[in-house]
Inverse folding.
């Protein structure tokens, strides 16, 4: 029999993260497109981002039939947060009078994210943006596949911190930190140090 779960954060009730999840407003609209294989991960950072941002949503799938309508949402300029040679480094809005961004964020392994772009030509066609100087990941439970790799939540926080400076979105990382600490406690410090230590 499975343990009862919180309907909102999907964590076991004894480890509910809801009290740590903020409700932050942002000028930027954040839309996370999550590959279905990511939904069952214990560290589902995309869900935390969608819960902690008022102007965000999480969509799960590989093919998104309503993408044209989503990208035509009035009041936003859609861009894809995804690295690549043609990706522009994000800059703050500052005095920018243009429409705020709708930041489309694929969530999945690199291979699965690329497949989502391939299966959704409208995504592939979007202007791409990327982070400039990437802060080191706090994701101590996973070896990064390459330097500068961060979790989906961390990428969103860093993007919003750049776009909407001086506003800061680090409060979104509080439930993430608690989640990681809980996982480390569950595996035991010795096991964590052996498998993930320096």
């Amino acid at each position: 029999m499975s343990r009862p779960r919180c309907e909102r954060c999907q964590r076991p009730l004894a480890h509910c993260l809801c009290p740590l999840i903020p409700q932050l407003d942002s000028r930027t609209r954040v839309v996370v497109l999550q590959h279905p294989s990511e939904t069952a991960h214990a560290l589902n950072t995309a869900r935390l981002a969608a819960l902690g941002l008022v102007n965000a949503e999480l969509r799960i799938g590989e093919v998104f039939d309503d993408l044209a309508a989503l990208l035509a949402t009035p009041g936003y300029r859609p861009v894809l947060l995804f690295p690549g040679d043609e990706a522009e480094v994000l800059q703050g809005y500052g005095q920018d009078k243009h429409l705020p961004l709708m930041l489309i964020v694929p969530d999945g392994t690199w291979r699965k994210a690329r497949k989502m772009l391939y299966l959704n030509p409208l995504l592939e066609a979007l202007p791409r943006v990327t982070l400039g100087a990437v802060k080191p990941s706090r994701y101590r439970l996973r070896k990064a596949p390459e330097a500068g790799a961060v979790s989906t939540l961390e990428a969103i926080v860093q993007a919003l911190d750049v776009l909407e400076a001086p506003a800061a979105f680090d409060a979104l990382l509080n439930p993430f930190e608690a989640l990681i600490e809980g996982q480390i406690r569950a595996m035991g410090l010795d096991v964590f140090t052996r498998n993930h230590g320096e």
